[in-house]
Amino acid sequence: MIRKAAVAGRFYPDTPAELAAELDRMLAGGGPKQKVLAAVCPHAGYVYSGRVAGSVYSRIEIPRKIVLIGPNHTGAGPQFSIMTEGQWEVPNGRLPVDTALAMRILGEVPFFTNDTKAHAFEHSLEVQLPFIARLRPGASIVPITMMRALPDYLKKAGEGLARALEAQKEDTLIIASSDMSHYVPDETARKMDALAIEHILKLDPVGLFNTVAEKRISMCGVAAVALMLFTAKLLGATGATLVEYATSGQTSGDYSQVVGYAGIIVK
User: Fold this and answer.
1) What does DSSP assign to residue 60?
2) Which of these, 213, 217, 141, 142, lies nearest to 178 by C-alpha position?
3) Domains, the chain, ranges and CATH?
4) Per-residue pLDDT of the chain (267 residues; tens, 9 = 90+)
5) Alpha helices in the chain (DSSP H)
6) Sign of the dihedral through C-alpha 121, 37, 104, 153
């Protein structure tokens, strides 16, 4: 099964040459690469969030295996969807699903569902792939999408995911895909997003979840980031660093209704 690119030509360039030029621009200027457990990357169109995502990818060593966790924007498929076979195609390559790891995760987290419907048109994971294909040719992925879930479920999922990753005894990067506040004034976005980012930097998934709920922060991937944090802590994470924050207003010039983007590294 080949999962064709669903948002090429809209969220990012759909020709290899144009995409390569765009990736060059977004990845320029990164610092020394470092080994990390996980990261938070945005998933809007590259014109808006690509610089933030590129700032993260340009600074990390990408291993052969990557677990991608993102929100389900389309509403298709089950609440927790994991794709266990096939390939994902983007203009600069194809990335195979790591079937062995995906099945191991499925065995450790019984309420995950083996599904392709949720992934067919979802952009939150797809926009990560051109970066990975560029920087780590031959990498394999495990795609996971989810709808909203309570912290108890995310904690159990994190425990199962951590067991699966520990069992394979091979470095695996976890990418949590999320944008921050949606369609609020720039000043409001920065204020609200700072509250959420504070909990991510503290490796505090419950605090993140509760703050987003209580303050009504429109962070689409809060469950994905919380799951990543639960997992990373069990794998030995000790800290996190904010690489870059931006809003769409810096590109569009419209600061009355912006979307926020944060790039964070977890070590």
Assistant:
1) B
2) 217
3) 2-266 (3.40.830.10)
4) 999 999 999 999 999 999 999 999 999 977 789 999 999 999 999 999 999 999 999 999 999 999 999 999 999 999 999 999 999 999 999 999 999 999 999 999 999 999 999 999 999 999 999 999 999 999 999 999 999 899 999 999 999 999 999 998 899 999 999 999 999 999 999 999 999 999 999 999 999 999 999 999 999 999 999 999 999 999 999 999 999 999 999 999 999 999 999 999 999
5) 16-27, 46-57, 99-108, 123-126, 129-135, 151-168, 186-201, 205-214, 222-234, 249-252
6) negative
Q: What per-residue string of b and e applies to 5-29 under the rule 16 or more CB within 10 Å gives b?
A: bbbbeebbbeeeeebeebbeebbee
CA-to-CA distance for 103 and 241, rounded, in angstroms?
Answer: 31
C-alpha 130: how far from chain center: 13
d(CA 199, CA 209): 9
Contact 63, 170 (CB under 8 A): yes
**267 alpha-carbon distance from chain centroid:** 16
- Which ranges in 40-96 belong to alpha helices (H)? 46-57
Max CA separation in the chain (angstroms): 48
